[in-house]
Amino acid sequence: MFLFAGGRRSYWVRSWRIWRWFRDYFPIRLIKTANLDPTKNYIFGYHPHGIASAGAFCNFATEATNFSELFPGIVPHLLTLEGQFYCPFHRELMLFCGINSVAKESIVNILNYKGKGNAAIIVIGGAQEALDAVPSTFESTVRLKLNSRLGFVRMAIINGAYLVPVFSFGENDIFYQAPNSIGSILRKIQTGFTKLVGFSPPVFHGRGVFQYSYGFLPYRKPITTVIGSPIPVVRKPDPSESEVRELHAKYVTALKELFETHKKEVGAEKLELEVY
């Protein structure tokens, strides 16, 4: 019930000092490009997924980067797979941080039954995109699984929620993933596993506690999250396929513009974006 009703959000938990330490470890920063009207509701599309979506957690599930000060009147709801809530204590912590299920019922509740000024944050690429999380030191192109992701756009139209593109530079840099190019044996196994159970099994490593070569701590690489301008959406209970695709095209264009506008600012001028 709590997964669909909005959880047990606690501003006190979201403001713990440990989240500021987490922010400074990488470090993570949040860039605002436009104001958000608190009389509207929103769906944020977060890109890329990366291995752990660390930027999404820090910016939207905690107050470490001062989201509530930057966007007064906007309540962020980071969404994740329902399976993440099966483990006691871990589940309670996520609910206190305002994290909810990405299930349809949860999104509908957030956008319709909790008043105005709510933002449902969805990591659009999901499990499949995590398999493309390659550090920019090895790959000059960020690959986003987006062309077939129409559900979040349809939900935006049905619920009258404005769409907001979000891009995190450096999200793919905090872990190294084993080479798994499309067509490789490893990639075929990973893809099959993802289709079977719903989440991907990336083979990755980070750093250790006392050495920098190997372990499961993320590398200390900067993550810069840029929140774009809202795309107006007119509520329609039963949108046509053409209406969904038209709005989806606007969203993709806005995301690409956001990427191109800010990549030089974060020192990623040679980085390219591929949407598939």
From TrEMBL:
Pathway: Lipid metabolism; Glycerolipid metabolism; triacylglycerol biosynthesis
Family: Belongs to the diacylglycerol acyltransferase family.
Protein name: diacylglycerol O-acyltransferase
Alphabetized InterPro entries for the sequence: DAGAT
A Gene Ontology term for the protein's cellular component: endoplasmic reticulum membrane
GO biological process: glycerol metabolic process; triglyceride biosynthetic process
UniProt keyword annotations, A-Z: Acyltransferase, Endoplasmic reticulum, Glycerol metabolism, Lipid biosynthesis, Lipid metabolism, Membrane, Transferase, Transmembrane, Transmembrane helix
Organism whose genome encodes this protein: Varroa destructor
Gene Ontology MF terms: diacylglycerol O-acyltransferase activity
Compartments, as annotated in UniProt: Endoplasmic reticulum membrane
EC number, as in UniProt: 2.3.1.20
Membrane topology: Multi-pass membrane protein
Main location: endoplasmic reticulum
